[in-house]
Specification:
heterodimer, A: 180 residues, alpha/beta, two-stranded antiparallel ribbon, 6 helices, 7 strands, elongated, B: 612 residues, five-stranded mixed β-sheet, 27 strands, 26% helix
C-alpha cells in the first residue's frame, strides 16, 4: 500500500469514547481505509506505532501519569502530524477535575489513611507509572491538529481524517466543531 | 419629552440612522447588524467588560467597545474587519483560558446552535478548536452552593458583571459586587461572605442574565436546553403584583420560571414566584375522597358529588371560603353556585383583604419605579409584594424621597426621609386648629407634611395597606390630585374577588365548602362546621380534616384571568395538562348544581367572569 498516508493511534487518560466514536463512522471506514493505511491502534493487534514512523498520530485522553507522558512522547517522535482527539486531549477534560487534590495527598488518602487500611504504604514499584497532574496533550508535546468533542462526532472524525488523507489540515466548522 | 436628534453614521458600509445618546452597539442592533458581545445585555447598563464587542471606528486610535461608545455624526464603524475578528478571537482565547471552562460537564454546554452558553456559542462561531493559552490546571475555583435555589460556579464565571449590574440596576438589592483586581477579580456578595449568608434575597435576576453556566438553577439544571423546552408567557399568581412570567416546561413538567423583561415587572420575580412554585408539593389529590369510619377513602366523582348534594340540601346554611389565588372565572363560578343554587351569601375569601380602591388615580408598577416621591402608608411591600419592593428601592436609588407612615418596622425604614405614625395622618389631625397651628409655624401635622411632600413632587406614588382605620383612608382622599395610589393587596386575585363582591371575612354555616385550589393553609384553622368539603389540589391539614375532598387543578393547569393590585386584568394560561380525573372548577360547580336539581350553565359562568 504505497503512497497512502499512514495513521497510528493510542489512548492516554481517557474513556475510550473517542475511539468508539471513530468506530461510529461505520461503513465509511472502508472508504477511509482506501485513503489511509492504518497501523497500530489500541483496538487492533498492533499496539505501538512503528519505529519507522507514521504520517498521522492520533492520541485520545489527557496526560495524567508518567506512562501516558511516555506514550505521548513516543507518538510525537514517531509521527509527522499529531492529532489531539477529544476534549481530554484538547483541553484536559474530565480528569482535570482531580487536580484540586494534589497527587501526594490523593495517594496518601487512598493507600494510607482510608479507614479500612492498616499499615498502608504508597506503591513505589519502579514499574508503576507515577501519578501527575492531569493536563491537556499540548502541555506535554506539541500538537498539530485539534479535534475537540466529548466525544467528537463520527462525522467530525471522518471529516478530519479524510482531510488529512487529502493532505490538508482540517478546519473544523459548523457541526464538526462541537466540544460539548 | 423631546425625541433625541437623528444623526447619520455608517456601519460596515451601510448608512445607518442613529439617535444622539445611543451607543454604537445599540445603533447597530437597531439597524439589524449583530455585533458579538458577552457582557452586554439589553436590560442592563453597558459596562465594557468583556472586550468582545470591539469595533473599528475611523479616527479612533484603537479598537473601541461598541457597547459603551456613543455615536456621533458622520461616524464610520466597521464590525467585521480582520483586525476586529482577530481581536475578538484573542479575547475569547483569554476568557477561555482564565478559568475552568471544561464545557463537557457544564449544564449550559450544548452542540452547535443548541448551546445555552453565550461563550461557547462564540467559541463555535469563531472556530476555536483549542485554547491558545493553557489554563492553570492546578487552580481550583470555588463553587458557592450556599443558596437554596441556585449555585455559583466561579470556574465558569467570565467576570462580565451582568449579575452585579442586575443586582444593582434591576433588583436594586446591591448584594453583588467584585472583590480584588485583575486576574484575581471575583464576584462576591456583601463583604465577601457566602451567597447564602449574604443580603441576597434569591430574586434570581442574576441567574436570568448569566451568559454562561456560572449561575445555574438547581431545580432545572440538566433537565433541558433552551432548544428542548417550551416557553409560555403567563402570569404568576403568587401575590397581587401579578408578575408576567415565562414558564419553562417540558413534557408536562414545569422546569423553571423566568421574569418577562418586557412586562411592568421588568424581568423581576421574587424567590417564591421564581423558585418555590417549582418545588415539589405534598401529595397530589387525584380522586375524590370521602371520610368513612374516620378514614379518607377514595371514591368516584359521582358518589362524592351525590353526597355533597344531599348534605348541602339538608343543611340550613352552607358557607363558602375561596382562595384568593383562584382565577376570576373560578371565583365567579363559586359565587354563582352559592348565590343561585345554595341561595347563601355566607361566602368569603380565605385571605387577602382589599383596601378601598377609590382613593384617587391608580399608579402603575412603572409609576412606582419612576416615582420621585414614594409614601408607604401601612402595609409592608418588602415582605408581602416583594417585586414591588424591588421597584420601590430602584426608585429610591434614583433619588426618590421615601415617606413612611407606619406603626411597625418594615425593613425599609433606614431609607425613609420622614417616618410618621398612622395616627399622625388620621384625618382629624388636620382639624382647623391644626391648620391654625401651621399658620403660626407651630408643629405641622403629619398629614400636612405628607401633603407638602406630595405637592413638591412631580411623580408621587402612595402605596397603602389594608385594614387601616377609616380616618386614615379619609385623610388619603384629601391628598393633592397628582398623587397616584397603589393598594398593597395580598391575595393574587383578591381584587378580582372584590369585584365579584367576595371579601376576606370569617364565615360560618352548618356545612362548609372550601375552594382551596393549590393554596397553602399553613397554620390557618379550618372553620368549624358539621360537614366540610375541601376542593384542593394537594394534601394538607385541611384535606385531612375534611368530610369530602374534591381534586382541584393547580394554578398552572387553569385558564382564566386575575386582577392585580393595579386592577390590570392578566391572563392565567394553562401551562400543564391536568390529570384526566381533575376537571376545572366551573365544571365541578355545574355538575354539583345538577345533583341539587338546578342548572348552572357554563356559558353563563363564562359571561359572569367577563363582566368583571
Amino acid at each position: 500500500m504505497p503512497n497512502k498516508p499512514t495513521v497510528a493511534s493510542d489512548w492516554l487518560a481517557g474513556c475510550a469514547g473517542c475511539h468508539m466514536s471513530l468506530l461510529d463512522i461505520d461503513e465509511r471506514i472502508v472508504a477511509l481505509l482506501e485513503q489511509v493505511s492504518l497501523h497500530a491502534t489500541p483496538i487492533t493487534d498492533l499496539k505501538h506505532p512503528p519505529e519507522s514512523g507514521v504520517d498521522v498520530g492520533i492520541l485520545e485522553g489527557c496526560v495524567n501519569n508518567s506512562a501516558g507522558e511516555r506514550v505521548a512522547r513516543q507518538m510525537r517522535a514517531r509521527c509527522k502530524l499529531l492529532v489531539a482527539l477529544g476534549d481530554c486531549a484538547v483541553f484536559g477534560g474530565v480528569p482535570t477535575l482531580r487536580n484540586g487534590i494534589s497527587c501526594r495527598e490523593a495517594l496518601r488518602r487512598a493507600y494510607i489513611e482510608t479507614e479500612s487500611t492498616a499499615e498502608g504504604r504508597i506503591p513505589n514499584d519502579p514499574e508503576l507509572a507515577v501519578m501527575q497532574d492531569a493536563r491537556a496533550l499540548d502541555q506535554v508535546v506539541p500538537v498539530d491538529v485539534y479535534l475537540p468533542g466529548c466525544p467528537p462526532s463520527a462525522d467530525a472524525i471522518f471529516f478530519a481524517l479524510t482531510e488529512l488523507a487529502a493532505g490538508r489540515k482540517p478546519a473544523l466548522t459548523g457541526k464538526n466543531l462541537d466540544w460539548h | 419629552m423631546n425625541e433625541p436628534a437623528l444623526i447619520q453614521i455608517t456601519i460596515d458600509g451601510r448608512p445607518v440612522q442613529a439617535r444622539v445618546g445611543q451607543t454604537v452597539y445599540e445603533a447597530a442592533a437597531a439597524a439589524g447588524i449583530h455585533i458579538p458581545a458577552l457582557c452586554y445585555h439589553p436590560q442592563l447598563k453597558p459596562a465594557g467588560a468583556c472586550r468582545i464587542c470591539l469595533v473599528e471606528i475611523e479616527k479612533q486610535r484603537a479598537l473601541q467597545p461598541s457597547c459603551t461608545f456613543p455615536v456621533a455624526e458622520g461616524m464610520v464603524v466597521r464590525t467585521d474587519t480582520p483586525a476586529v475578528v482577530a481581536s475578538r478571537k484573542a479575547s475569547l482565547h483569554m476568557i477561555f483560558s482564565e478559568r475552568t471552562h471544561y464545557c463537557m460537564f457544564c449544564p449550559a454546554s450544548g452542540t452547535g446552535e443548541t448551546t445555552d452558553c453565550e461563550l461557547q456559542k462564540l467559541g463555535y462561531e469563531h472556530g476555536l478548536d483549542c485554547w491558545a493559552y493553557a489554563p492553570n490546571y492546578r487552580k481550583q475555583w470555588p463553587v458557592d452552593a450556599t443558596r437554596k435555589y441556585f449555585v455559583m460556579d466561579h470556574g465558569r464565571c467570565i467576570l462580565c458583571r451582568r449579575c452585579v449590574r442586575a443586582c444593582e440596576d434591576i433588583a436594586a438589592n446591591h448584594t453583588l459586587g467584585v472583590n480584588q483586581r485583575g486576574a484575581r477579580t471575583m464576584i462576591c456578595a456583601d463583604d465577601d461572605v457566602p451567597f447564602g449568608e449574604s443580603s441576597c434575597v434569591s430574586c434570581g435576576t442574576c441567574l436570568q442574565v448569566c451568559p454562561t453556566g456560572a449561575l445555574h438553577d438547581r431545580q432545572s439544571v440538566y433537565l433541558g436546553h433552551e432548544s428542548q423546552i417550551k416557553r409560555t408567557p403567563a402570569t404568576c399568581v403568587g401575590c397581587a403584583v401579578g408578575c408576567s412570567i415565562h414558564a419553562i416546561t417540558r413534557g408536562n413538567h414545569l422546569l423553571r420560571v423566568e421574569g418577562d423583561w418586557d412586562a411592568p415587572n421588568g424581568g423581576l420575580l421574587c424567590a417564591a414566584g421564581r423558585f418555590e412554585v417549582v418545588e415539589p408539593k405534598s401529595a397530589r389529590i387525584l380522586q375524590p375522597l370521602v371520610r368513612r369510619d374516620g378514614q379518607p377513602v377514595e371514591t368516584t366523582w359521582d358518589d362524592a358529588l351525590t353526597l355533597i348534594g344531599t348534605k348541602f340540601s339538608e343543611a340550613h346554611l352552607v358557607a363558602g371560603v375561596a382562595s384568593p389565588r383562584l382565577t376570576t372565572e373560578s371565583l365567579a363560578a363559586f359565587e354563582c353556585f352559592f348565590h343561585d343554587v345554595l341561595e347563601s351569601s355566607e361566602i368569603g375569601l380565605l385571605s387577602g383583604e382589599v383596601p378601598p380602591l377609590d382613593l384617587g388615580a391608580t399608579a402603575s408598577l412603572r409609576d412606582v419605579a419612576e416615582a420621585d416621591c414614594i409614601a408607604i402608608i401601612g402595609g409592608n411591600p418588602l415582605q408581602n409584594q416583594k417585586v414591588l419592593g424591588h421597584l420601590i428601592r430602584r426608585a429610591l436609588d434614583n433619588g426618590a424621597r421615601l415617606i413612611l407612615v407606619n406603626d411597625e418596622a418594615t425593613g425599609i425604614d433606614a431609607w425613609a426621609e420622614m417616618h410618621l405614625e398612622l395616627e399622625d395622618i388620621s384625618f382629624h389631625a388636620a382639624s382647623p386648629f391644626e391648620r391654625l397651628k401651621t399658620t403660626y409655624h407651630l408643629r405641622v401635622s403629619g398629614l400636612l407634611q405628607l401633603k407638602k411632600a406630595i405637592e413638591s413632587a412631580r411623580r408621587p406614588v402612595l402605596l397603602y395597606g389594608s385594614g387601616l382605620s377609616s380616618s386614615v383612608y379619609a385623610a388619603l382622599r384629601t391628598l393633592p390630585e397628582q398623587a397616584r395610589f397603589l393598594p398593597l393587596v395580598k391575595g393574587a386575585n383578591a381584587v378580582g374577588a372584590a369585584r365579584l363582591g367576595i371579601e376576606a371575612r370569617p364565615v360560618r354555616g352548618d356545612a362548609l365548602y372550601v375552594l382551596l385550589g393549590d393554596d397553602q393553609v399553613d397554620g390557618l384553622a379550618l372553620p368549624q362546621s358539621e360537614f366540610t368539603v375541601v376542593h384542593a389540589a394537594v394534601r394538607s391539614a385541611w384535606t385531612d380534616a375534611a368530610d369530602v375532598v374534591l381534586p382541584s387543578p393547580t394554578w398552572a393547569e387553569q385558564r382564566g384571568h386575575v386582577f392585580n393590585l393595579e386592577g390590570r386584568r392578566l391572563p392565567v394560561v394553562p401551562l400543564l395538562q391536568p390529570p384526566a380525573s381533575v376537571p376545572a372548577h366551573g365544571q365541578t360547580f355545574v355538575r354539583l348544581a345538577e345533583r341539587m336539581g338546578q342548572t348552572l350553565s357554563p356559558e353563563a359562568l363564562a359571561q359572569l367572569a367577563v363582566q368583571e
